[in-house]
Amino acid sequence: MVFNTAATILKTIQLSADVIGIIVTIPYLLSIILIKRFCITSNLFVAHVLCANLYLCIITLIFGLFDIFYIDNSKTICPFSVYARYSAVCVAVNALAVVSLNQLCRIVYPRVLLFKKNLWALIRCGIQWFLAFGLSSVTLANDYQ
After folding, report:
1. d(CA 128, CA 27)
2. Which whole number is the average pLDDT over 66-86?
3. What per-residue confidence (pLDDT) applies to 58?
4. Angle, nearest 10°, between helix axes 41-68 and 5-34?
5. Is the dihedral of CA 45, 47, 53, 54 positive or negative?
6. What is the pLDDT of residues 126-142, one digit of tens each?
7. What is the DSSP string of 43-109?
8. What does the alpha-carbon distance between residue 92 and residue 38 come to, in Å, rounded to a whole number?
9. Domains of the chain
């Protein structure tokens, strides 16, 4: 088995960045969730971005380890690997879009209280996660045709 040194080094750097991302994200996320005075709408959107970042780091860490150690990407794992990576990237990008859209709505409509409610933030974040997983499921359908 021949190892490509440059690719292994780059993959190791990526995995190190994923581990650092997980270590940095968890305390910040827990402080937003557990401390009552931090549970405001803007911090809920920050927590949403942190959850998306955590999901992305965990998925890339798991499948990065699969790539490094050459675990057989059989017909059952390979489509799920592609789906998980696409969904993780889609969740991370859409999380930033949801935050930007909420800030735009708060600036354009400053008197509408809907954009300042925690329930509204949770609904928008939930819709975004369902949308990300739904859009990524196209990769599963293409792999099994």
Report:
1. 24
2. 74
3. 93
4. 150
5. negative
6. 998 998 888 888 877 77
7. HHHHHHHHHHHHHHHHHHHHHHHHHHTT----TTHHHHHHHHHHHHHHHHHHHHHHHHHHHHHHHH-
8. 22
9. 5-143 (1.20.1070.10)
